[in-house]
Amino acid sequence: MDSPRRTARLAGLLYLVSSIPGAFALLYVPGKLVVEGNASATADRLRTSGSLLRLGIGAEILGMTLFVFVALVLYRLFRPTSPEPALWMVVLILLPMPISFLSVVPEVAALNLAGAADGSGYLSPIAALQRDALAYFCLDLHGWAVMVAQVFWGLWLFPFAICVIRSGFIPRFLGVLLVIAGCGHLAEAVAGLVFPQHAAAVDRIGGILTPAELPMIFWLLIWGARARPRPVSAAPV
After folding, report:
1. What is Dmax (Cα atoms) for the chain?
2. pTM of the model
3. pLDDT, tens only, 186-217
4. What is the pLDDT of residue 228?
5. Cα 40–45–49 angle (5° rounding)?
6. Shortest CA distance to 74 belongs to which of 64, 63, 85?
7. What are phi and psi for residue 38, nearest 5 degrees?
8. Mean pLDDT value across the chain
9. By the number of CB atoms within 10 A of the CB, which of 69, 89, 160, 235 ranks highest?
């Protein structure tokens, strides 16, 4: 049977490896392609750098796929000490996966509308300015889908934190940091979806809170977990 330390390090490795393509797809690629409020300039970037968006789509799918295994390995790690929170942790991280996978479809549509994809000539009857506006809308739609998924990215951290605090083989303060990160994700998502007039201010606060998730990744990867204490057997009569 795998030791808790080996399982924890595997979880940390998968956690880190899945986060790198996700950050590339969700942070770097939009920053390079999207010109805020300017559909024509954004479409021009899609036409000249369509391969970057395709790379981002592939990275996003890869990151989400790997994160499924993060959830499963973490469940195996925490099930002996916190079976119910561990189950909720897995459920909450798997629930947004269909949303996340489908969110790449509007990105593919954006490439076609901008004329950056082969075989998109059938869209030529639509005026160029309209296609550019629709391409920008599709990228915006992808962002809204990611924001919906972010609700669950925050929620899953709460049962994860309970598992850490109860475990006895990972420092409790890391569980507290997970709660802080979960609040940051939830605040950003709820503000963006429900209170957009406050989204910019909340994002500045969320940008401080959400990185509190990172110490957990590196602790799992570097230190793993202490061995679980064995139950004391009853003394022979």
Report:
1. 90
2. 0.87
3. 999 999 999 999 999 999 999 999 999 999 99
4. 55
5. 155
6. 85
7. -125, 100
8. 90
9. 160
For residue 100 the two structure tokens come to 């996340």
Question: What percent of the chain is helix, strand and coil (3-state, nearest 5)?
Answer: 80, 0, 20
Place of tokens 């991280």: 93
CA gap 49, 32 in Å, rounded = 9
What confidence tier does 231 reach under pLDDT thresholds 50, 70, 90?
A: very low
- Between CA 237 and CA 233 the distance in angstroms is 12
The 10 Å CB-count burial string (b at 16+, else e) for 173-200 is: ebbebbbbbbbbbbbbbbbbeeeeeebe
C-alpha span between 171 and 78 (Å, rounded): 14
Instruction: Give the burial class of 123: count Cβ atoms within 10 A of its Cβ; 0-12 exposed, 13-18 middle, 19 or more buried.
Output: middle
